[in-house]
Specification:
- By secondary structure, this protein is mostly helical.
- The chain has 2 domains: about 5-360, Arp2/3 complex 21 kDa subunit ARPC3, CATH 1.10.1760; about 370-420, no CATH class.
- It is built from 15 helices and 6 strands.
- The protein has helices spanning about 5, 20-45, 50-80, 85-105, 110-135, 140-145, 155-175, 185-200, 220-230, 230-250, 255-270, 285-310, 320-350, 350-360, 410-420; strands spanning about 205-210, 215, 375-380, 385-390, 395, 405.
- The chain has a two-stranded antiparallel sheet with strand order 1-2. A two-stranded antiparallel sheet has the order 3-4. A two-stranded antiparallel sheet has the order 5-6.
- Strand 3 and strand 4 form a beta hairpin.
- It is globular, with a radius of gyration of 23 Å.
- The protein starts with a helix and ends with a helix.
- Residues about 1-10, about 365-375 and about 410-420 have low confidence and may be disordered.
Length: about 425
């Protein structure tokens, strides 16, 4: 399974300064990590309304910053690697539209603005896919990769792309049916920061494969934590945005459906990491996160696996079945990359402080029926310190499943308020 890794050379992009592209990428990695650290420290120090305003401003800045980096990387790729104009222009428009829509939604999120942003983003994506299709039909992308049209199975690529998209969306709505609807300032801010963090960590590569794909230092962990905190539907959307940015970071586009499978679809599957976040069957948060991460990694692998069979099967060594080649190639780096994320995630989710802070920042993640003040009590978990509202005197903590006794002082206050109301 790991035979392909033996021929791959380790590439540490943060330490490369050979070309203008490498210089910009290296500086971007360290600058992004510094900005994320500054956000984390400042966010924890500030309180109340000041923190909310800071988070909103920083979230807008993170979206604009990610957009600027995407445009810069794409322009450098156009200048150095010779990406054709018919791909450069629509991809450039796509990233500008996505960044602009994200910034606009931070200021205003009513129904009309949301619909307009969704339509603009969808139109930019469709235009990019059409241009990729035109480039493929012209034979330019095939010639650039030493392929012929009979070596790429167009029908299979489209069919499996549609099936995978439907499967991911179906799972997102099934497991995220109780998630709070819509984005608020908190969820947008954390989405921008987590996408930027994963984008920076993706440059910390242990091994880079010869035909795209790499093993990184837990680059997908921030996206998985975001899905666990804010729900599967928001996680899938954040993963899709990250997948588009990945296409700009390492542009390898052959076919419209291959573009979807290797970038937006593959990384939107990472948003499935939160499907067990509120499972009552799984007792430990480490287990809920670990199993969710495995499901997310499997979804990503399937997407790359299908692309490898029907788009890049011609690169299989002579005498080796195409299915086996794609299996070994993609499993070799995806399995290792996800294993690193699972180990890192389990260690983080073993921290009671982290669980407490995650619960505090992801307030109102789950939509629940309104409850009267008289029946609500505040409970504090003695094991992990998480605060939760409950209508029962004794309940189980949703994170560590320890028995929790409701705060008697809070209950008394509610009763007094009820008496005044009466």
């Amino acid at each position: 399974m790991f035979l392909n890794l033996l021929d791959a050379e380790a590439t540490w992009f943060p330490l490369l300064f050979d070309t203008p592209f490498d210089i910009v990428r290296s500086v971007a990695v360290w600058l992004t990590l510094a900005l994320i650290l500054a956000f984390a420290v400042t966010f924890f120090l500030l309180k109340g309304e000041t923190r909310r305003k800071f988070a909103k401003i920083y979230g807008i800045g993170a979206i604009i910053y990610a957009g600027v980096l995407g445009v810069l990387f794409l322009c450098l790729s156009f200048a150095e690697d010779g990406i054709v104009t018919i791909l450069f222009v629509p991809l450039l428009i796509l990233i500008v539209v996505l960044a602009a829509c994200g910034a606009v939604l931070c200021f205003r999120r009513d129904k009309l603005v949301t619909i307009l942003c969704a339509c603009a983003s969808a139109a930019a994506l469709v235009a990019a896919l059409v241009c990729i299709g035109v480039n493929y039909a012209s034979g330019a992308s095939l010639d650039a990769n030493w392929l012929t049209s009979d070596q790429v199975n167009t029908v299979a690529l489209y069919v499996f792309a549609v099936l995978l998209i439907a499967a991911i969306i179906g799972l997102a709505f099934l497991f995220g049916r109780n998630d709070k609807k819509g984005f608020n300032t908190r969820s947008i801010t954390f989405a921008a920061v987590c996408i930027a963090m994963s984008f920076a960590l993706s440059y910390l590569k242990i091994v880079e494969m010869p035909y795209a794909g790499s093993i990184t230092i837990a680059s997908l962990l921030p996206l998985m934590i975001y899905s666990y905190m804010f729900g599967v539907k928001k996680g899938v959307f954040a993963g899709m945005i990250y997948g588009v940015l990945q296409a700009f970071q390492d542009t390898y586009i052959l076919h419209p459906a291959q573009f979807l499978l290797d970038y937006p679809v593959a990384f939107s599957a990472i948003g499935l990491a939160g499907i067990f976040a509120h499972s009552k069957v799984l007792k430990y948060p480490q287990l809920r996160f670990g199993l969710g991460a495995i499901v997310a990694g499997f979804g990503r692998f399937v997407s790359h696996f299908i692309s490898g069979i029907f788009a890049f099967g011609a690169f299989a060594p002579e005498g080796q079945p195409v299915v086996l080649y794609s299996l070994l190639y993609n499993l070799g780096y995806v399995l290792t990359d996800i294993a690193i994320v699972v180990v890192a995630g389990v260690l983080i989710f073993s921290s009671k402080v982290f669980l407490h802070e995650m619960e505090r920042f992801a307030q109102n993640r789950t939509a629940s029926p309104a409850k009267t003040e008289e029946t609500m009590r505040v409970a504090v978990c003695p094991s992990c310190g998480a605060k939760l509202k409950t209508s029962e005197k004794v309940t189980d903590c949703p994170y560590c499943h320890s028995p929790v006794q409701a705060d008697q002082a809070a209950e008394k206050t509610s009763d007094q308020a009820a008496g005044k109301t009466a």
